[in-house]
Amino acid sequence: MASEPLVKHVFTADPSAHAFAGKLYVYPSHDRKTDIKDNDNGDQYDMNDYHVFSMETVGGPVTDHGVALKAEDIPWVDKQLWAPDAAFKNGKYYLYFPARNKEGVFQIGVAESDVPEGPFKPEPEPIAGSYSIDPASFVDEDGQAYLYFGGIWGGQLQCWTTGKFDGSAYSNMEATDGPALLPRVAKLSEDMRSFTSGIQEVAINDADGKLLPAADHERRFFEAAWMHKYNGKYYFSYSTGDTHFLAYATGDSPMGPFTYQGKILDPVQGWTTHHSIVEFKGKWYLFYHDTSLSDKNHLRLIPKADRKKIHEYLFREGVLVAKKDYNLPKHNDIDTKNLYVVKACQSLTSRGYVKTQFSWQYYYYTLTPEGLDYLREWLHLPAEIVPATHIKQQRSHAPPRGMMGGEGERERKPFGGRGGRGGGERGDREGGYRRREPGAEGKEGAPSGEFAPQFRGGFGRGRGAAPPS
User: Fold this and answer.
1) 430-445, pLDDT tens digit by residue?
2) What is the pLDDT, as a whole number, of residue 267?
3) What gap in Å lies between CA 31 and CA 467, rounded to an integer?
4) 3-class SS shares of the chain: helix, strand, coil, % to 5
5) So which residues are the catalytic ones?
6) Are residues 232 and 347 in the same domain?
7) What is the CATH number of the domain that holds 173?
8) Same-domain check for residues 219 and 316
9) Percent share of the chain, pLDDT over 90
């Protein structure tokens, strides 16, 4: 069931939920305001401490136990305390966390406490051999503990394909063909502070036993590994990242292999939908984050004037192309930063208002019928105005011819730039839009009637009141 965010007084994301000592404890990351520019490194997620939250009943009062661990208290950490997880064994509580070391490389640390809410005392060094982000601990019924981890793009997993860090591989982000990059798993020692086995890849196969391909962005692993066990089966769940799904696979061993089974959660408002799954008092719960509190990703809001330009263009054309370059100072067709265009369309995609496709260098966005209604309402346009692509039979979501041909093809502006298609005039468009003819209400892509967008809450990456500095 969807619910309101559990907390509104601090920025939170990446909730790891566990049933400890008769209560439900949630260990999220803690966002804060920053002036760092958004980029694929994730530098904008400038987190420097952890809070722990607890509740006696789901939906009941939530207690913020305050700061449980700070970056300044961890000798090896330079910055960015990202998504953590917790475990209980041998009468102790353990907090696993990723952070960048002094060389800028993500590793995973561990801290210990006598109580689930902390404070936690960190080990002076990261876990030997650890790398990447998003640690998820799992203690099996036989007492053996495991640690799952990994995340592509800003999580640096693509830099570890040889077993050693290769910084030159960072900019590739991920392969465009062949099998997808896989999450990692290792057995933990009895004291929960080191690996006792070699790090292994966690195989996620399709129904035919073949590894999921890198090009399958709706199924392949991106980040946010999680493990739970139910009726003797192991359930490995994860985020698909840039397509915003939560997916799961099942297997007979905690080390895998796992067979892809489907999606747990469709896209919500925000990025990655990092989650956890926990049984508490006989019921199972899914915790996740979204941005419904603030319509933000990492606490930044696209200026309203720029968002309006993006929405106007998308509504007018019905389709939009953006280069995969967050640092591009200006979008090719819209007088705003390319970053703003990508982020605005990611937000619309997460709510089902835009369909996204990918190529090596570009994102291709197509307005859905639901998105048409939403943007018409957002722009305060009359019902008879529809985009050019929706006045006729609905086009497929495949990129139009010529869009895959690189920069030379891109200059043709197949979506109708300022000069219209092929350099001609806009024809029967009025004010840049195409007006629907009388009697066309039943045509596909031009629904009428009242529209009320629905946002689902969660353990939100977002804000209510500003957090304490």
Assistant:
1) 334 434 444 444 333 3
2) 66
3) 9
4) 15, 30, 55
5) 14, 223
6) no
7) 2.115.10.20
8) no
9) 54
